[in-house]
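Thanks for the sequence, V.! I ran 2-polyprenyl-6-methoxyphenol hydroxylase-like FAD-dependent oxidoreductase right away. Repeating your input here for the record:
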Amino acid sequence: MGIEENVSVGAGPRARGKRALVVGLGVSGIATALRLRSAGWEPVIVERAAGRRTGGYFVGVFGAGQAAARRLGILDAIPDRSPADSADFVVTRGGDRRSGLGFTDFPGEPRVMLRGDVEQGAFAALPGDVEIRFSTTPVRIEQDVSGVDVTLERAGASATERFDLVVGADGLRSTVRRLVFGPHERFLHRLGYMIAAFMLPHPIGGMAGHEGAMLLEPGRSLLVLPFADHAPTAFFSYRTADVDTQFTGRPIDRLRAAYAPRPYGQLLGDALDAFEATDDYLFDTAEQVRMDAWSKGRVVLVGDAAWCATVYSGMGVSAGLAGADLLGTMLQRHGDAVLPALRAWEDHLRPHIASYQRTGIKQISLFTPTSRRQLAGRRVFELVDRLPVVGAAIRRRLTNSEDNLEKERDIAFVA
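Predicted structure:
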């Protein structure tokens, strides 16, 4: 989650045609620009940060995302860092550990990687004539039937430009959404959890590099997620009755308080110390974005800005890729008819996103059990899973469940 130095992209002749402003240089924004460019549009990307972010945290790209990445031409450029000999353990504060179920033990066939791997793969595929402006944000958006006037601000100076389409791919607290659709409070739905994620400098808690670890307690958890060829990442998740208070003071102080008062033990203590030593982390509340419509006129939202399902769904990157791919397909099909294209895009995509959001709620307990009863149920499941006949039957049932099939379904394919 570092930042590359500010570079200018845009050398070479530029295609002249319909202009699209893409706000945000994350997975959804880069993928959208890539797909629009292949559909004959002239995308211009603006990014608030001074440079492109790198690194990131653990993500899984499921079948829906892999299919979209293949059509975007970037699947081979995003690595699968799943450790071939991985072993996952449930660890206590006292240092006891037992075999447990890790991310890749559950149904589905995700590619495991860092979020930055996907961004890098998509970024590398952008044609050289795609213009990218860093340290730039929209401050005013007005539209009429034929286009959108956007006032962009950089270093205190502003200028207004006209576009045929504006795509807000600027994340959970989207500026485009706020300017066009309304304040964040109308669309953000808090789940009562805080999350923190960051890259570890090396394995911690006495774990080997290929070993994953889970510290699971009612209402709070720590996951250490391994990779084949990279240091692991850590993920904290805990319940809170007062989200706003969590943003006062230093994040490390909030984390230490959330996991107090018992002695931390080696794994948790190492993770907290590593968090305190880095300035490259995610610390935020778990919230879903719920909207009745993802577009208004010629302005459309893609990715977390439109439908954030939370990290608990595991589908953030996959949904961003699929949504971007499908948007380009619908615009290509409808030619200059932008509004019908946006309606067709949303009609096709919305049922799948609704499923991801439901999964995001259901799977909270997989990351952070809320009670001792849920912890006991997880323990029973782990024991039963090892039984040859019964375990295989349970896995078949989970593999064929609608939630899992939805993750693997190629939702952006339109015959």
